Amino acid sequence: MQVRELGHLVLYVRDLERSSHFYGEVLGWRRITPQGLAVAAFSSGRTHHELLLIEVGPEAAPIPSGRRVGLYHFGLKVGDSDEELRVALSALEANGVRLVGSADHTVTHSLYIEDPDGNEIELYVDVEAADWRRDPELLLSPIRPLQL
Known about the structure:
Oligomer: single chain
Shape: globular
CATH architecture of the largest domain: Roll
Number of domains: 2
Radius of gyration: 16 Å
CATH topology of the largest domain: 2,3-Dihydroxybiphenyl 1,2-Dioxygenase, domain 1
CATH superfamily of the largest domain: 2,3-Dihydroxybiphenyl 1,2-Dioxygenase, domain 1
Strand order of the largest sheet: 1-4-3-2
Largest sheet: 4 strands, mixed
């Protein structure tokens, strides 16, 4: 067996409509399931769904802070250039989304945010000049401050 691609993510959320607004309206994913269900599926068009949200209610335990086992963050490619990353940053600022970090990873330029439930998300663009296929050690390059 060989994994061919990451197919989809499933997240538990406290408030389905709040999270649906964030992933649909703020991040621009297309919701493919109708309103009124206990779940919401989203797709960029690459496959049937890349994200599924399941509402668990306001009393659900929060994501523990600090070092822990489990999901750290997930990455979403938002374009192919720094200009597209600047546009993404402007959209985040216009929607009041707090930036929790940014980084130049040599192979990507990245912005870090959190969704309404505290899941960390990396929004990134690939750096075209970084040929990680030829030199996989580029993935281990020191993290530098992002200059947008």
